[in-house]
Amino acid sequence: MISASTASARREPELAGQTVVLIGGSAGIGLETARRARSEGAEVILTGRNPDRLKQAALEVGAQSTAAFDASDPAAVQGFFQNLAGPIDHVLVTAGGPTYGPLLEMDAAQVSEALSGHIVVALEVTRAAVGKMRPGGTLLFMGGTGGRRIAPGVGIMSAATDATPPFVAALAVEIAPVRANLIAAGFVDTPLSASLLGDQREARRKQLRETLPIGRVVGPADVAALAVHIMANTALTGATYDIDGGQQFVS
Question: Model confidence over 126-183: pLDDT tens digits?
Fold first, then answer.
């Protein structure tokens, strides 16, 4: 009889022989996904805007290579993918962050950026990456669940949140047999969250530990585990996967 521990030890790594590109991979969810992908046998390529932080992240995870550029620059995105030496399997885009604020205090440029910024970046990454990707790989984008409720201060985020899932679903149809999927996260305890909340971070953590059905705060490792599962499961495409510990049901 084979024990559970023996069976686990014999399990093949889920991403063995595959290559994962992390756009925004020097910290937070991107870096944690790189760690998880490496543990599942993948090679990883990290990108970000800060060369020093990228270098440190690459050393931490044993990255194949890095590239420093702004993901909102279409020419830089195109150049990065054109210069990749070989085919890739998966791309996770975590670059960028949410936009909050009262609607009437936003000018036209801010509204346009909040509504289309993430979608434009996703589209440019897709255009540049899809020709380099093996069939069955996935383009994986980050969204959120927080904007699903209309509330003071959320502003344009509700509209932006609603726009992303149908965009990714339509993209999945167009780029098949490459896949496209969306992760919708609630509060995740990352450096980005820390920068947004400042000295309110610990109070927010305490509130979530006391109210979330899971009884704890969602961390980057939780999202990374979901991301790698979506990469490995080739039946998943065009879908949105919530990961917020039940936050949208109790907030």
Answer: 999 999 999 999 999 998 887 677 777 666 777 777 889 999 999 999 999 999 999 9
96 and 118 in contact (C-beta within 8 Å)?
A: yes
Please state, in angstroms and rounded to a whole number, the distance separating the CA atoms of residues 52 and 69: 12
- List CB contacts of 203: < 8 A, sequence separation 6 or more: none
Q: Contact at 8 Å (CB) between 182 and 168?
A: yes
| Order of strands across the sheet that contains 43-48 | 65-68, 43-48, 19-23, 88-93, 133-144, 179-185, 240-243
- Segment 194-220 shows an average pLDDT of 88
d(CA 125, CA 90): 12
From CA 26, how far away is CA 193, in angstroms rounded? 15
Given the candidates 3.10.560.10, 3.40.50.620, 3.30.499.10, 3.40.50.720, the CATH classification of the domain at 16-250 is 3.40.50.720
pTM over 0.85: yes
Structure confidence at residue 221 (pLDDT): 97
Treating both helix axes as pointing N-terminal to C-terminal, what angle do 28-39 and 220-232 enclose, rounded to 10 degrees? 50
